[in-house]
Structures are given as C-alpha cells and as structure tokens.
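=== RUN LOG ===
request id: a7f3
mode: sequence -> structure
chains: 1
length: 381
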Amino acid sequence: MRFQVNRDVFSEAVSFVVKLLPQRNPQPILAGVLIEATDAGLSLSAFDYEASARTTIDATVDEPGTILVHGRLLSDIASRLPNAPVEIAVDDDGILLTCGSARFTLASMPVQEYPAIPEVSGESGLVPAELFATAIAQVAFAASRDDVTPVLTGVQLEVSGTRLSLVATDRYRVALRDVPWDGGSSSTEEATALVPARTLQEVGKTFSHGENITVSFSGSGDREIIAFTSGNKTVTSLLIKGNFPPVRRLFPEQTDHHAVVNTAELVEAVRRVALVLDRSAPLRFTFGADGVAMEASGTEQARATEQVDATLTGEEVTLGLNPQYLLEALAAVRSEFTRITFTSSDNANKLSPILVTPQTSVDKGGEDTFKYLLQPNLLLR
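=== RESULT ===
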C-alpha cells in the first residue's frame, strides 16, 4: 500500500474520526483508525462498538490496500507535520509516514481483528445543519451525567411530520427544542431515537457549518443505530435502550404569571451573587414589582445581594434556584430578554417548576421553539 495526500486534508480527516474514540478503551484494537486506499481515494474510519466516524478524502493511490494504525498517535503526528504532501507506505518495518524531512515509522495493528463499521440504509430526512447544531447546544447540557440511569444520559430525538424535536432531562430540569424536518420521500412520519448526549454534541460541533445533515434510522432490537451525514463525513451511534420519561406533559399549556428580564444583566448578577454560595446550595430569588432581587449566604458569614430590573405580571414570587442550572438555561435562550413563567401544580405540597423561554423585547415574546423547565429548590428560611 502506498499513497500521497494533502497534509491539511489528511490531518483534518484523522482528527475528525478520532474525536469520538474514548480516551481509555478496554480493547486496544478499538484505538485504531482504519485507512482504506482505493482508486477512488482514501476512506478513514473509527469505531468503538457504540459510535463510529467515517470520512472520505481525495488522494493519489499508487498501491491500494488497508491499514489499521493507532488513532490518537496518528492524529498528533498529522497535526504537527511540516507544510508538505504526506506519503504513507507499508513495508516490512511497519507503516512509514513521510512529510518533507519528517519521517515516522508506526506499528501496524491487525486489520482482520477490527470490527465491521456499521452501515445505515434505513429511512432518512434532512435538517438544516446550523439550526440542528444550535438545537443540540440548547438541549444536550440538560442530559444527566450519571450513568446509573442510562436513559437520562441521552437526548431524545422525535420526528413528527415536518418537525424534529430534541428533548433532554436529568429529573431536575427539561430542555426542549424544535427544528424543521424534511422527510422527502421517506414514509416515516413519526420516529424516535435516544442518542447519547456526548455523541450528539460532537455531531453538532462537527457539522455546524454545513448546509444540511441527513439523519438516518436503521437496525432493530438491540442494534438500533442512527447516522448523521454531511458532505463526506458520517457519524453513527448505537441508540440507548429504554423508555424516555414522558416529560412533555410537564410543560404548562398557558400561564399569565411571569417576569421578563434582560438576559445578559441577569446572567452577570447571578454569577456575582453565587460566588458566596456553598456548593449545590440554591440562590434565593424574589420577583417583585421593583425587579428581581437575589440573595445568597455562604460560609464564614459571607453574604451577597443584588437586584436587576424586571417586568412582573402577577403577584410577587420568592423561590430558590440552582444558579448553575439557571445560567445554563439563560445561555441556551440566545435572546436579549428572557421570560420566566411561574407554573402552577395540583399538588400543594410540591414546588412548581419555572418555564424559561426566549423573549425578543420586554413586551414581545420570542419563538416558541425552545423551552426549559427548572425545578425550584426548597428554601430553609
């Protein structure tokens, strides 16, 4: 096997396929990147049985062949090569990489032991790449990081007609975002897929600058997978098995009790006041006619208070909120103003969640494509 390839193109391709590989893999063979050289060019792939990444690039192939080489080492080397064409050849000593005056000899891993990269040929549809990447950033952070409950570590994708919804929850909050969905000639009008949040976040970062992303569903039983394709790149992911909680019913139909506040001003104030809080302690908020007042008490008699302007509709409200959870919601709103709606509950003994939505101005609501529910914390005083 022997081929020549552009340095920048090769480095970007290797970097893409190794992004989804875990830092520590119990099976050394899965740390490899599979490189296939044919008359059509190069195909680079990585797979760890749960997620895969594949891309194709142009190259001058003198001798076709297939090699498997340690992915992260190859990525580190490729990112530091001099500005010259890259040549890779296989001889008795291993894999020889040459670029200008730089030469590396790398060990070849056994290709025959590498698992087959999953192929996806099921129903598919299109989503706008930039919108999809934004939606992922607005939702994925709300997924749980605790592997004890796997279904909560994923983002639920729900296809319904011309809409694709992304939903995530960790029991204390729920994030929901809708984006347009073009099913084309596909017969699938409704579909669901529970995708690991970490994988979906990499998809958002990688494909954010493309035009459209093709989302394909395939497989059955324990091997259901989803694929995301844009240009010459494809990422697949094994779906999380289990029933995602029916969190949509938690969102209120209509409420008039709310406050509107400047997003940036509230973010800065929350960051300052929260500095004195003990870890995981709630921040006290009072929404009144004069604005929203924040109060925090920490160790060593440290205290902080601040108030920002807000327009309140309804009666005064005092509640405790996790400051980090609120800050993440405010970052996801992506609008100049934020509406905080106070919901009601049939259970008088249970605190009702607040609903956070974007607001284009003090008196004009924003698009209803993003919603965030946050459960208040019990205040001890």
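=== NOTES ===
The chain is about 15% helix and 40% strand.
The longest strand covers residues 173-180.
=== END ===
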